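Input record (Table S2, row 235):
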Amino acid sequence: MDWVEDAKRRAAVEAVNSEVKDGLIIGLGSGSTVKYAIEEIGRRIRGAELRVLSVPSSYQSLLLAVKCGIPTTTLHEHPTVDLTIDGADQIDPNLNLIKGMGGALTREKILAASSRKLIIVADERKLVDHLGGGQPLPIEILPFAEPFVTAKIREMGGKPCLREIRAGAPYITDNGNFILDAGFGIIENPKKLNEELKMIPGVVETGLFVGMVQSAYIGMRTSVKKLVCNKLKST
Ligand code: 5RP
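Output record (ribulose-5-phosphate complex):
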């Protein structure tokens, strides 16, 4: 295992062991780092250390939760989630995020907004000074609206690109939608850009998560650091 996989695993295990308590309703984000958190929750359930219910954010996480023996529920049964653990593609010093390279951003944002606490697990490569540099912003859109939304984003100065699974075959989200990966360069005001994009008819959700995160467990090369309210604390 290279250091990145080890860093992701350490961050996820530390987050689960610090944050996940008996009886909680847990939101499960998606991606290769959250995978380690799901596996750790499953391990503790099988060891009879823990009883929780989970709300997965994607079919990927649902299938893994079932495989790991984690009982699942829905927002219909539990509209308020105690704690969501999710990954991120970029994390700025204010704990604002770009998410969605795994394609689950809409359900992830709904879960985040339904949660009392949103905890991020990631490796140190995800830390940035400003969102957007070298990283497109994933935007989930209605397929019908793709030409219109593409033109609007170009007018805003963005460079949208339809995500494909292979040439000519659009990537389809768990909600049956398309994703535009839009380059904006450095995003000076993530809140404003999110609001502007959400005003475009046909935009379902953006991968900008602004002011939603309580803390982030960051897997460094040899340690895990907990990032809370702009302060990096060793754990
Ligand atoms: C999926 C996401 C993921 O959380 C994000 O892409 C990070 O994934 P990984 O842990 O594999 O780097 O937003 O929509």
